[in-house]
Amino acid sequence: MNWEEYSFVVRSKERKRIFLLLVRPKTPSEISRELSKKAAQVSRTLKQFSEKGLVECKTPNYKIGRVYALTKKGEKLLEHFKEKRLISF
Length: 89
What we know:
Elements: H1 3-10, H2 13-21, H3 28-35, H4 39-51, E1 55-57, E2 68-70, H5 72-83
Antiparallel strand pairs: 1-2
């Protein structure tokens, strides 16, 4: 596991909440509704995750309703959260 990526996610409560919601693919609108956050903030965070290789856009050609999902790297990080019981399912 990459500790820099782990640190990046957990340093911000909002980044951690957004990351954990991606246990299944979602759109930025779905995430913003679930967290009562502005879509721009969610989109910015997803872009940061994408730059770090933690998530990928599954529908990059769409202007509206883009779907984001964890990459293999993101899934490994999510597994670490589960193992450490930082989240429950």
